[in-house]
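Suppose you are handed a protein chain with no further information: no name, no annotation, nothing but its sequence. What can you learn? This example shows the usual starting point.
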Amino acid sequence: MELRGLEFVDNPEAADLLINFHTQLDDRIRVRTVSDPWVNQRFWDHRNGWYQPWPAHRNWPQPSTRTEVQQTTEGSLNVDIIDARSNMLVWEGIATQRVTARTLNGIGPALDIAVHEIFSRFPLPVIEAR
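A reasonable first move is to predict its three-dimensional structure. Written in structure tokens, the prediction is:
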């Protein structure tokens, strides 16, 4: 924010803007049914499991399916800019990303990258150094 011409003050009562950071982790489960690949040694194998070759052939083997379950964790970072006098939200930035154990072990750099991306969309431009 200092690169945008704003000055940090220690006392929140003297500030014009307040910044609130909030992080959250959500576990997600994705369940889907997929067709098993068809493996057989007949001439017409390229059709098996995809479509019926002709209506009169009623006993054609039907494709089998399996259920895939995938568990992931999604991390969210919200940055709120609040007008201190009116106590009203004036801007919000959000970043979300899939979080792995590796990300959690290096959470500092991951948060730095997320904050940088969020503030790249902040409406007040960076002031060029003179």
